[in-house]
């Protein structure tokens, strides 16, 4: 079904509830889903290394290097909103991810956040980490780096535990930071911590308790993050620039548009000619592109 939604053309389809994944393949000549590099920003909305823990309100973007294949291509899977101890179709999706990952020889996996339901990890020793991650994604093709950002459900737990490098002692695939950059030669991937942008988590948290350690003072944190992102995007010389966050910017799904990201993040992405914004949060599959293309 296709909708005209404000200034965008939105195509949606039903998917497995709560948990889906998709694949990107990049080469020097083409991308699997886009035959030509778009002039305008394209949103791919999905319902989906070393870890450094940030404990201050600064948001300096750390850089990680991800080698491409010998032919210059990069392939990866993206998943979001997934950590449910195998329920809600998580185990079935993990099986399919393993098969597709092997056929396409993926280089890494991206997680768009809400990694552990319902309330993140309680500590470094929370069995949810292994029950929802290590013991679920067991296929040989998925034994690659998992580059992950935090979602709003993750902020309801012990954020520092999920960001801690000590988790790599349990599973060395796990790479989770608030905001960071992965340089994969042909493509630069910019991971953005979107949860602190959303006003309602601070003003009307309802019964939920959020762990804002490392984020306060909030405005300083957000200003630094936006400044660092803008500079990094302007300096990028990669053929493709992709930004990853948990929250929607525009969406026809349950949560709809995130007005704070429309106001503060979207102008930076447009000014720097970002090719894709990839997110989770809304539990549906959408492909949104500018009608002005």
Distance between the termini: 20 Å
Any idea what the shape is?
globular
Give the number of helices.
Answer: 7
Q: Output mean pLDDT.
A: 85
Give the biggest sheet: 9 strands, mixed
Number of domains: 1
The percentage of residues in β strands lies in 15-25%
Q: Helix and strand string, N-terminal first? A: EEEEEEHEHEHEEEHHEHHEE
- Here the CATH topology equals Purple Acid Phosphatase, chain A, domain 2
Number of strands: 14
CATH architecture: 4-Layer Sandwich
Radius of gyration: 18 Å
Category from helices, strands and their pairing: alpha/beta
What topology does this entry show?
Layout: E1 2-5, E2 8-13, E3 21-26, E4 42-45, E5 62-65, E6 74-79, H1 90-104, E7 108-111, H2 128-134, E8 146-148, H3 159-163, E9 174-176, E10 180-184, E11 187-191, H4 200-203, H5 218-235, E12 240-244, H6 259-264, H7 266-271, E13 276-279, E14 285-290
Parallel strand pairs: 4-13, 5-10, 6-7, 7-8, 8-9, 11-12, 12-13
Antiparallel strand pairs: 1-2, 2-14, 3-6, 4-14, 10-11
Tags for this model:
single chain; 293 residues; alpha/beta; Purple Acid Phosphatase, chain A, domain 2; five-stranded mixed β-sheet; disordered N terminus; EC 3.1.3.2
What does this molecule look like?
This protein has one domain (2-290): Metallo-dependent phosphatases (Purple Acid Phosphatase, chain A, domain 2), CATH 3.60.21. 21% of the residues lie in helices and 22% in strands. It has seven helices and 14 strands. It has helices spanning 90-104, 128-134, 159-163, 200-203, 218-235, 259-264, 266-271, and strands at residues 2-5, 8-13, 21-26, 42-45, 62-65, 74-79, 108-111, 146-148, 174-176, 180-184, 187-191, 240-244, 276-279, 285-290. Strands 1-2-14-4-13-12-11-10-5 form a nine-stranded mixed β-sheet, with no helix packed on it. Helix 1 links the parallel strand 6 (74-79) and strand 7 (108-111). The longest helix has 18 residues, at 218-235. Belongs to the metallophosphoesterase superfamily. Purple acid phosphatase family. Its cofactor is Fe cation; Zn(2+). This is Purple acid phosphatase. One of its GO terms (molecular function) is acid phosphatase activity.
